[in-house]
Amino acid sequence: MERVALFPGTFDPITKGHESIIRRALPLFDKVVIAIGINDQKKSFFPLNERKRWIENVFRKEDRVEVITYEGLTVDLCKRLGVRYILRGLRTSADFEFERSIGQMNKAMFPELESVFLLTTPDYTALSSNIVREIIRNGGDARPFIPEGVDLSVPKP
Ligand code: ADP
User: Fold this and answer.
1) Inside any domain, residue 105
2) Helix (H) or strand (E) holding 96
3) Would 155 be classed as within a structural domain?
4) Tens of pLDDT along 60-76?
5) Which atom of ligand 1 is nearest to the CA of 90?
6) Which residues contact residue 123 at a Cβ distance below 8 angstroms, ignoring those fewer than 6 apart?
7) Mean pLDDT estimate for the chain
8) Ligand 1, atom 14: nearest CA belongs to which residue?
9) pLDDT digit string, tens, across residues 94-151
10) Whose C-alpha lies nearest to ligand 1, atom 1?
């Protein structure tokens, strides 16, 4: 059976931290599905179609990576797709506490589901989409923190 991991997130925008987690997960799984969550309560900085196009472009040479968008609970998406593994990255103890509660709740709702966590590499511990947005908002150069293939020069919403 194909071993598929779902990597859910907002990716607003994708950073080198996300890219690193995905590339490091590829030897562990047959396929990684990057799932961009649409959350009505949380207005995104970059439009959904741009966030999706950027990720597709970063992984254009990797046919084992797929990018989708979804609404609703991540466990429902996993059930619908028949996916048994959720991939997440861990930077800090704050990430751990957050991920522990989500992971345990997901397991309560879908017992066959396993959450798989990869520790961030030290270079990317301080990196987040939030900080990248802050740099862009204030006219700084965010390119060192963004993967190759992401063209941030598009008009902002
Ligand atoms: P969410 O809104 O669900 O937190 P994000 O797009 O911010 O979505 O993050 C998706 C996943 O990527 C999360 O598991 C997060 O911990 C992980 N992640 C984000 N930045 C990094 C980084 N610099 N290093 C490792 N993992 C990261």
Assistant:
1) yes
2) helix 93-109
3) no
4) 999 999 999 999 999 99
5) 16
6) none
7) 95
8) 88
9) 999 999 999 999 999 999 999 999 999 999 999 999 999 999 999 999 999 999 999 8
10) 9
Record the tokens describing residue 143, joined without a space.
């390119």
Our CA dihedral for 147, 150, 152, 153, rounded to 10 degrees, sits at: 130
pLDDT of residue 109: 98
| CATH code for the domain in which residue 71 is found | 3.40.50.620
Instruction: Report the alpha-carbon distance of residue 100 to residue 39 in Å, rounded.
Output: 21
Task: Determine the structural domain holding residue 89 and report its residue range.
Answer: 4-141
Q: Which of 24, 52, 91, 107 is catalytic?
A: 91
Candidates 7, 10, 14, 21: which one to mutate for ligand 1, based on the most atoms within 8 Å of Cβ? 21
In a domain, 152, yes or no: no
